[in-house]
Amino acid sequence: MRSRTRRGLSLGLLGLVLSCQQAPDLTDELNEYERVVNEANSEACRCPMELGYDSMVECGDALGTVTNEDVQCLAGVLDGNEEIGRDYLDCASSAYRFHVQCLGLNPSCEEGENTDCTADLAAALAACPQLPADIRPSFFACIE
To answer: What is the 3-state secondary structure of 48-96?
Structure first.
């Protein structure tokens, strides 16, 4: 009986140790990143002339959309780098949320108003934890 209890306890501890070593699941962070980048692009294209485009359609085509396929690509790139990936995605998603709010403050598309929003986004993204140099190009290639 005592041996069975120890074995059960040992297996339980082994399971706990192994579960602690599993890489974190980035699904929620990747889906949020996809959502806010797409929302930011959509909001930016509400004023296409600010970005040098003649129409919302032209702007949307140029900025593109982050797709499920892109998200899968990002997940593959971040495989093995989940902790820094989570830190970057959380920070970048927050930056894009603020960018969307900033762009929303210019409902009449006043010329030049969105420039500050774009500069603020660039600064916020630059302040985020940076992805390792060996995966950074692949990460951004997924969404270009």
So the answer is: HHHHCCCCHHHHHHHHCCCCHHHHHHHHHHHCCCHHHHHHHHHHHHHHH
